[in-house]
Amino acid sequence: MPPGLGDATLDLMRLIPRMEFLIVTTPSRIAFQTVRRLIELLREADRVILGVLENMVLEPSGRIRGEVEAMGLKYLGSIPFDPKLEEALGDAEALLQTDFAASINAAVSSLLPD
């Protein structure tokens, strides 16, 4: 789902009381401010936040990681912008060979118990 506090997010929170959230943001300061408001809402509602994943990173800076960790949340990693992703859509084998897929795999692995 897109980040933010839209009707879809609020409806899911109402309909699925034990839903856990994995939050995705881009490196944009504006996008992260929206994510910050979402995190505050989820905390007020006593919802589980699995962590935050940074998507479409052009140049790693550590800014989002620092803000996420300062909020006491788990930073799940970053997904670099992958220009090959568009070409791989519709082809599962090609998609699995992208940097995007490798980054998703690493992030998901960090959520699994050892």
Could you outline the blueprint of secondary structure elements for this entry?
Blueprint: H1 7-15, E1 20-25, H2 29-44, E2 48-57, H3 63-70, E3 75-80, H4 85-88, H5 92-96, H6 99-111
Parallel strand pairs: 1-2, 2-3
Q: Which descriptors apply to this entry?
A:
114 residues; three-stranded parallel sheet; alpha/beta; 6 helices; globular
Tell me about this structure.
This protein is α/β, with parallel strands linked by helices. The protein has a domain at 7-82. 48% of the residues lie in helices and 19% in strands. The chain is built from six helices and three strands, in the order H-E-H-E-H-E-H-H-H. A three-stranded parallel sheet has the order 1-2-3, with helices on both faces. The protein is globular and about 40 Å long. The model has no long low-confidence stretch (mean pLDDT 90).
Structural class: alpha/beta
Rounded to the nearest angstrom, the distance between the terminal CA atoms is 28 Å
Kindly state the percentage of residues in helix: 40-55%
* Main sheet: strands, sense, barrel: 3 strands, parallel
Which stretches are low in confidence, meaning pLDDT under 50 for 5 or more residues running? none
Treating each run of at least 4 consecutive H or I residues as one helix, how many helices?
A: 6
Q: Give me the side-by-side strand order of the main sheet.
A: 1-2-3
Number of strands: 3
Overall pLDDT, averaged?
A: 90
Radius of gyration: 15 Å
Order of helices and strands: HEHEHEHHH
Question: How much beta, percentage-wise?
Answer: 15-25%
Shape: globular
